[in-house]
Amino acid sequence: MLSEFDDRPAIPLWLLAGAALAMVVHLYLVFMWVPTEATMGIVQRLFYFHVPAAVAQFTACFVGGIAAVLYLVKRDPKYDDLSLAANETVLVFGLVNVGLGMLWAKPIWGIWWTWDPRLTSSFVLLFLYGAYLVLRPAAPVESRGVVCAVVCILGMADVPLVYLSNRLFRTQHPAPVLGGGPDSGLAPPIKATLFFGMFTMMLLWVCVLLVRRRVARLERAAEDLTRRSHELEDVRSY
Amino acid sequence: MVDPNLSWLFWGYAAGWLLIFGYLFFISRKESTLRRKISELQEAMEERWKQKKA
User: Fold this and answer.
1) ipTM
2) Class of domain A10-33+44-169+186-237
3) Cα separation of B49 and A70, whole Å?
4) What element of type H or E holds A143?
5) CA angle A28, A21, B15 (to 5 degrees)
6) Minimal CA separation from B27 to chain A, in Å
7) Is B6 on the interface with A (CB under 8 A)?
8) Which of A231, A183, A175, A209 shows the shortest CA–CA distance to A90?
9) C-alpha pair distances (Å), B30 with each of A61, A208, A230, B10, B24
10) CA–CA separation, A76 vs A145, rounded Å?
11) Backbone φ and ψ of A203, nearest 5°
């Protein structure tokens, strides 16, 4: 049921203001401050949106997965709501990540897509979370939380595979630039812009997650009220 | 001279922001719809309780 908490704004004002400011600063860093990368040229600037979106997506997978485990242990609906909210954001930020990757690949590789281990595992991850969202309304109400938690934990298990895919296998996807081999690394301005981009995207992701979690609570309340209303109707007709 | 790859950069950022803010707009609309539905349901239930008591 709804509480006083649900009447307050889903996103605290300081967080909203911080995210908006960070977005403006990030755009300034990407388009005005950071120098153009020598080999790929201007299109490399997509990297400052593509990688932060992937970081937000992976964080969402872990938050959704941990919330799913907590739901299985405690059976408290608030964890199921959080898991649903996080899992939906996995799909949104995952689409941004993959979409921007494709827009980078076309001018650099000459192709939109290739079935290499990094891209294939990313596709499987998106597919799993897409399946979660399709399955959720179709599952019986009494077992919905459990079924969805299991699918969500499977999705979370795919994340290390996506992360390690360009470390364990030969891929067309660029080699890791952070935590890679001895030849990996980034120039300081590129690294600073990337890290600031990750910070900005995480703020934005938290804002989206809070709004979605509120909607999940409202959906549960509406569902509960509808069921009680039908029960009352049945009692009257009986 | 304009870089020929500038359009990729433009479309990339435009699509990314559009997707995130489009989603945020969509869930905000959904929140308003759900709030309206909940208050309607609460009113209807209160009405039924009153009828039942009467």
Assistant:
1) 0.89
2) mainly alpha
3) 37
4) helix A141-168
5) 65
6) 7
7) yes
8) A209
9) 23, 13, 23, 30, 10
10) 10
11) -60, -45
Alpha carbon distance A153, A48 (integer Å): 29
| C-alpha dihedral sign at A55, A61, A66, A67 | positive
pLDDT single digits (tens) A154-166: 899 999 999 999 8
| C-alpha–C-alpha distance, residues A137 and B3, integer Å | 47
- CA dist A126 and A134 (Å) reads 12
Q: How far apart are CA A36 and CA A172, in angstroms?
A: 22
Amino acid letter, A76: D
3-state percent helix, strand, coil for chain A, nearest multiple of 5: 80, 0, 20
| CB-defined contacts A:B, below 8 A | 90
Distance from CA of B2 to the nearest CA of A (A): 11
A77-104 in b/e form (b: 16+ CB < 10 A) is: eebbbbbbbbbbbbbbbbbbbbbbbbbb
| Contact assignment for A96 to B38 by CB distance below 8 Å | no
Q: What is the pLDDT of residues A82-121, one digit of tens each?
A: 999 999 999 999 999 999 999 999 999 999 999 999 999 9
User: Which pTM does this prediction carry?
Assistant: 0.91
Q: Which sequence spans correspond to the domains of chain A?
A: 10-33+44-169+186-237
> E strand or H helix at A209, and its extent?
helix A188-237
